[in-house]
Write a structure and sequence with these properties.
Blueprint: E1 12-16, H1 21-32, E2 38-41, H2 46-56, E3 63-66, E4 69-72, H3 74-83, H4 85-91
Parallel strand pairs: 1-2
Antiparallel strand pairs: 1-3, 3-4
Length: about 90
């Protein structure tokens, strides 16, 4: 009997606000790579912003987490995509 290999898909979560050009860039990059993500827009959620800052230590947007591990913001996502480490993180 042949067992199909299970493929685990990384969970990508992006916390955003508006207006935020860096949030738009991050979402566009993820979409361009055909990566599904869950977005939480905290523009009207001050309590959510506080909780996120407590969790990540960051106060800027966007904030991208993969499998609940903080990747960082737009700069870190873009750099990880450019140097190939984003693919490695997603394949882990």
């Amino acid at each position: 009997m042949h067992l199909a290999r299970l493929q685990f898909v990384a969970e990508i979560v992006i916390y955003t606000t508006v207006p935020c050009p860096y949030c738009s860039r991050a979402k566009a990059l993820l979409k361009a790579r055909d990566l599904e993500y869950t977005e939480f827009n905290l523009a009207s959620d001050p309590d959510g912003r506080v909780k996120l800052a407590e969790k990540t230590g960051m106060m800027t947007f966007p904030q991208i987490l993969i499998d609940d591990k903080l990747i960082g913001g737009w700069d870190q996502l873009s750099a990880a995509d450019a140097d190939g480490s984003l693919a490695a993180i997603l394949d882990a």
